[in-house]
């Protein structure tokens, strides 16, 4: 029994070392990607009720030295913990504004909007408002085309701080979307106080809508609520024609999902 205990301790300490080593390796890869141009933005189309592409969400990808792709689900949490999300997020803002400028210069794509994901930690950097203003100036974009996606986790401590900061950025002309709506705890009270323009129904509800009556009820409630608050709704993760139909019937206005297009590098982007 004593040996069993010792083996167990060794097993756990080896497992923990493996976790620590994997995290350290991932952090190194992120630093290398920052230094050596290893990040890419992929663009996923968003469509209106008529099936027209009205814009895109920019989704980051990381490529390591071997050219292996690392998905954001695997590295964003560590980037947030280590603070690397701040320079990574600045790169996203910069790259997205350059792309938006390219679209706005071309008549056929001039009306497209571009959404970027911003982590709470990046949003609350003291100079974040200035960084957004500077990027808009530098790239000479019409700011109405830029949208920032935040999750509820952006509210840290005092809600007024978040409201104030959002107002400062809205004053620049940039719009806000509340991402992953329905997955958090305080959605309703936050929704009333934070100046969002749009909400995104989490893909979990869209996925379960047909087979699960409570998900369908949640989708319906979100759509009714957003109409009364004058918010546009984007349904995320639309994968089937049946989901699309149901969402159209329920009055949803904007759609995003594999049914219409996966996130692709800009070379593969062809809208309309
Ligand atoms: P998210 O913002 O909720 O993005 C939507 C995710 O759903 C994306 O995963 C997208 O590829 C995926 N998706 C889109 N349509 C479908 C569909 O029809 N079916 C399914 N199953 N999935 C679909 P992705 O690109 O792996 O990104 C994961 C998360 O990583 C994002 O979730 C976002 O939270 C974060 N992320 C991505 N890019 C950035 C970034 O530039 N900055 C920050 N801070 N976070 C980012
Ligand atoms: Ca998003
Ligand atoms: Ca989402
Ligand atoms: Ca998400």
Task: Explain this structure.
This is Diguanylate cyclase/phosphodiesterase with PAS/PAC sensor(S). Keywords: Membrane, Transmembrane, Transmembrane helix. This protein is an alpha/beta fold. Helix content is 49%, strand content 19%. The chain contains ten helices and ten strands. Strands 1, 2, 3, 4, 5, 6, 7, 8, 9 and 10 form a ten-stranded mixed sheet that branches. Helix 1 packs across helix 2 and helix 3 packs parallel to helix 5. The protein is globular, with a radius of gyration of 21 Å. The termini are far apart. The mean pLDDT is 94. The protein binds ligand C2E and calcium ion (3 copies). One calcium ion binds next to loops.
List keywords for this structure.
272 residues; 10-stranded mixed beta sheet; 49% helix; binds ligand C2E; binds calcium ion; Diguanylate cyclase/phosphodiesterase with PAS/PAC sensor(S)
| N-to-C span | 69 Å
Structural class by helix and strand composition: alpha/beta
- Topology, number of strands: 10
H-E string: HEEEHHEHHEHEHEHHEHEE
Sheet having the most strands: 10 strands, mixed
Task: Give the arrangement of secondary structure elements.
Blueprint lengths: L1 H34 L3 E9 L5 E11 L5 E2 L1 H11 L2 H21 L7 E5 L2 H4 L4 H12 L6 E5 L8 H13 L3 E7 L5 H7 L4 E4 L1 H6 L4 H16 L3 E4 L5 H9 L4 E2 L8 E2 L7
Parallel strand pairs: 2-4, 4-5, 5-6, 6-7, 7-8, 8-9
Antiparallel strand pairs: 1-2, 1-10, 2-3
């Amino acid at each position: 029994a004593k040996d069993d205990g010792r083996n167990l301790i060794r097993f756990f300490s080896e497992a923990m070392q493996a976790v620590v080593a994997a995290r350290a390796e991932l952090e190194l890869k992120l630093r290398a990607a920052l230094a050596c141009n290893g990040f890419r933005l992929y663009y996923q189309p968003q469509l209106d009720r008529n099936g027209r592409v009205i814009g895109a969400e920019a989704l980051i990808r990381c490529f390591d030295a071997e050219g292996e792709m690392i998905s954001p689900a695997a590295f964003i949490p560590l980037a947030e913990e280590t603070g690397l999300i701040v320079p990574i997020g600045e790169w996203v803002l910069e790259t997205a504004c350059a792309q938006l400028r390219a679209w706005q210069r071309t008549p056929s794509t001039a009306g497209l909007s571009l959404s970027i994901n911003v982590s709470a930690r990046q949003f609350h950097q003291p100079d974040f408002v200035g960084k957004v203003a500077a990027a808009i100036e530098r790239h000479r974009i019409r700011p109405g085309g830029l949208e920032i996606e935040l999750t509820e986790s952006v509210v840290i401590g005092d809600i007024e701080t978040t409201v104030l900061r959002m107002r400062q950025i809205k004053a620049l002309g940039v719009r806000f979307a509340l991402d992953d709506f329905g997955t958090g705890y305080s959605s309703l009270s936050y929704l009333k106080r934070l100046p969002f323009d749009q909400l995104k129904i989490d893909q979990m509800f869209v996925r379960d809508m047909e087979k699960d009556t409570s998900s369908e009820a949640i989708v319906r409630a979100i759509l009714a609520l957003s109409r009364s608050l004058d918010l546009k709704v984007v349904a995320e993760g639309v994968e089937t024609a049946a989901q699309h139909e149901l969402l159209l019937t329920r009055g949803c206005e904007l759609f995003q999902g594999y049914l219409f297009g996966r996130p692709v590098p800009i070379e593969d982007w062809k809208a309309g």
